[in-house]
Specification:
The protein has 315 residues and is an alpha+beta fold. The chain folds into three domains: 43 residues, no CATH class; 137 residues, OB fold (Dihydrolipoamide Acetyltransferase, E2P), CATH 2.40.50.90; 98 residues, Nucleic acid-binding proteins (OB fold (Dihydrolipoamide Acetyltransferase, E2P)). The chain is 23% helix and 32% strand. It is built from seven helices and 16 strands. Strands 3-4-5-8-7 form a five-stranded mixed barrel. A five-stranded mixed β-barrel has the order 11-12-13-15-14. It is globular, with a radius of gyration of 22 Å.
Length: 315
């Protein structure tokens, strides 16, 4: 039996894991050592992408849910009706007009409707640096009154993919971490074959849209406004990865020279124009070292193993 001693320090609980000798040996043989922190249930359930200052947000009432990332809202008095495009995510399309329904689109919308109904349709809108998109919709991070960040909630459950569009990057790292949780668990969107990581050579020549690709960077070149990367591929028409120089500030610490010969994972929208296939990256969350992904997966597997093996006691 493994015991768990809880010590209260101010407003948090610190859980100290005491291991019996048998389990200690098993852990040390596997080179794992665990220190576990557990908060009150209200803290544990709270969103890690929470608003910092509620004084800087606008309270609104949801009147309609178009899909998983678009709402119709009014202000608290029922005035100023407008569309809100939720920042940081892209959910599958639902059937409308000539648009075909995509898998999990209707389900994402339904889950969001239930979530909002339980919150009495009351939300907070937090605006980022750019307030409107090209369709004149307001762009906002959306949270419930209990602090639940809707983008994070949908990402963690595999109903959405991250969509980070500068300059609205306030919670980008948090959203990416939430997406990665769902990817590791292969939840919903991430169990679909189309969303699995492929090599550049495995990708069919007519593929367009969202892709996740892995491979070794072979070279890069700089032009006046853009940096281009190419990955190892037998294809005569290789995919070019582009980063506009104006967006380099969203790739802190990026050194193109050091990426050559590195195994990387790229995620983004694959486009084809005049025979050229390109993916344009706008944020560092779209470009990750494969070694970092493997490390995160290893940590996730260790946590699952401990959770399924350890029998907790709070006596």
């Amino acid at each position: 039996m493994i015991s768990l001693t809880i010590v209260t320090v101010k407003n948090n609980h610190i859980a100290i894991l005491l291991l019996n000798s048998y389990f200690k040996k098993a852990l040390f043989k596997s080179a794992f050592f665990a220190l576990v922190f557990i908060g009150y249930s209200s803290i544990a359930n709270a969103s890690s992408c929470q608003l910092v200052q509620q004084s800087k947000v606008e309270k609104a009432t949801v009147k309609w849910v178009y899909d998983g990332d678009t709402l119709l809202v009014t202000d608290a008095n029922g005035n100023n009706k407008r569309k809100i495009r939720i920042i940081g995510i892209d959910t599958p399309e639902v059937k409308h007009h000539q648009q075909k329904a995509q898998q999990y689109g209707a389900k994402a919308r339904e889950e969001l409707r239930v979530l909002l109904k339980d919150a009495n349709y009351q939300i907070f809108l937090e605006f980022d640096k750019e307030k409107y998109d090209r369709y004149k919709r307001q762009l906002a991070h959306v949270t419930l009154t209990d602090g639940t960040n809707i983008s994070e909630w949908l990402l963690q459950r595999g109903f959405a993919k991250t969509l980070i569009i500068p300059p609205n990057v306030k919670y980008a790292n948090c959203y990416k971490a939430s997406e990665r949780q769902a990817q590791q668990k292969k939840l919903r969107l991430w169990k679909l074959k189309a969303n699995r990581i492929k090599t550049f050579d495995e990708l069919k020549s007519k593929t367009k849209g969202y892709v996740r690709l892995k491979g070794k960077v072979t070279k890069f070149k700089k032009q006046k406004k853009t940096i281009f990367f190419e990955f190892e591929s037998k294809n005569k028409n290789p995919i070019q990865i582009r980063i506009k120089k104006k967006n380099l500030r969203y790739f802190k610490g990026l050194d193109p020279d050091k990426l050559v010969d590195q195994e990387m994972i790229v995620s983004g929208i694959l486009k084809s124009k005049k025979g050229k296939r390109t993916i344009t990256l706008s944020h560092s969350s779209q470009l990750e070292r494969l070694s970092a992904i493997k490390t995160n997966n290893l940590k996730s597997n260790v946590n699952k193993h401990i959770s399924s093996t350890v029998k907790w006691s709070t006596k």
